[in-house]
Every structure is written in structure tokens, then in C-alpha cells.
Amino acid sequence: MSAHPAPPGASTPRVSRVADRLAALGDATLDVFEQVGRFSQLALGVVGVLLRRGVRARELVVQFESIAVRSSSIVAITALFTGMVLALQTASSLSRFGAKPYTGSFVALAFVLELGPVLTALMISGRVGAGIAAELGSMSVTEQVDAIRALGADPVHRLVLPRVLAATLGLPMLTVAANLLGIVGGLLIAAQLGIGANFYLQSVLNVVTVEHFLQSIEKAVMFGWIVSMVGCHVGLATTGGTVGVGQATTRAVVAASIAVLVSDFFLTKLLLAT
Predict the structure, then answer these.
(1) Would you say residue 255 has pLDDT above 90?
(2) In Å, what is the CA distance from 125 to each residue of 43, 222, 231, 274?
(3) DSSP label at 223?
(4) Is residue 147 included in any domain, yes or no?
(5) What's the domain count of the chain?
(6) CB 91 within 8 A of CB 193
């Protein structure tokens, strides 16, 4: 006997699964647009508060010390050893073409144009971005942010603005230090490979210009703003208690790192076009 036909309008399991997936995709798309809208609102709020009320100098100094000064050691170690590894790999590749003495040129350009600002931003994202998200997230789930609003203060002015300015100002300084330490790391390896220090430094000065350093600083300014804004945005939107704080910290690091890498591509395209 043949099975009874399904009644009109009844959904098959396959159609139901497709509908569920489309619904999930729609919810995810709406959530993305909502997050972008909230992020844009927070960014405009930071600019508005800065223009209207300025920033507290004491709080800015405290955040600068926490974000920039305390991150100097990890940035220095990362840059130094990355420069050493890059010099080893570059010298090994160039030796095949008899161009090993020009290792310094490649190391310097790679660091100033890309590795310096990007590696510094990723290190800051892992340390500072996570710290900002965890700190503001803890304040959000314990209703301290609501208490600030109840007292008539603006959380954007008290909590967000000092952190954003400190990261935006501090990351370019760390990037300059990372560039120099990366070049020094390459110099240490070059000396072991028989490349004279004078020739190494001269090759660096021949290829790296002031314009290259300015491009590196411009990238660092944007990366500092991105990392701090993402951390603040995720932290203020945290819910769900201590579990939510842990999840927010992970989201902040992942989102900030991806945003840095994506923005680096577009910034490079823009800088090369100008």
C-alpha cells in the first residue's frame, strides 16, 4: 500500500531545516548591523564628549601608563626576536642570489611598513584589548556603569574616552620603538653572518625614508583607536555575569585582531595610492 500523501501546507523535514538556517542567517545579519550601529554610536559619542568636555588629564595619564608603559616589555621582546628571525630567513634566501649583504634593507622595510605596527597592534590587542573588555565588562555586569549614569556622570567620558585616547597616543610610540628594536635585532644576526654593522645601517638608511616612518605611525594611530574602541564596545555590552565577562574578553581579542588585519590591507592600499 502507498503511504498517505502529506496534507497540503505541511512542511517536509528538509524544507524545515532550510527555513531554520535562513532564519538563523537573518538573525545573525541583524545582529551584525545592530553591533555596527552601536559601535558607530559609541564612536560618535567619544568624539562628541571630547569636543564638549575634553578629557581628565589625571585619568589619561593613568590609562597611558596602564596601556602603553606596561606593554613596552612585551612589545620590545616581540620586535627584537621577530627582527632576528626575519634577518635569519632573509639572509638565507638572499644568499642564493649573492645579495646577503642587503639583508638590512629588507628587514627595515618589512618592519617599518608592516611588521612594526601590525605586531604591536596584535600584542596590544591581546593584552590591552582583553583588559579593557574584562574591566568594563565586570563593571557592566555588576551595574557599576548604571550607577555612574544614576549619579549624573557620563560613562563614555569617565570610562571610554581616557582609554581610547591613551591607546591612540600610546600605540604609535610603541610602534616606533618596535621598528627600532626590530632593526637592531636584525643587526645582531647580521653581525653573526659576517655583514658589517656600518654596511647594515647604511643599507637601512638608503631604503627607509621619513615617509615610510610616517606611514607606520599613521597605521599605528588607527590600530590603537580600533583596539581600544572594540574593547570598550564589547565591555560595555557585556551581560551574563562572570561567564559573560570571559566570553566578552575572547570576543574583544578576536574582533580587534581581525579588524587590525583587515584595516591594514585597506590602509596600505590607500597609502600606496596617495
Answers:
(1) yes
(2) 18, 13, 8, 28
(3) H
(4) yes
(5) 1
(6) yes
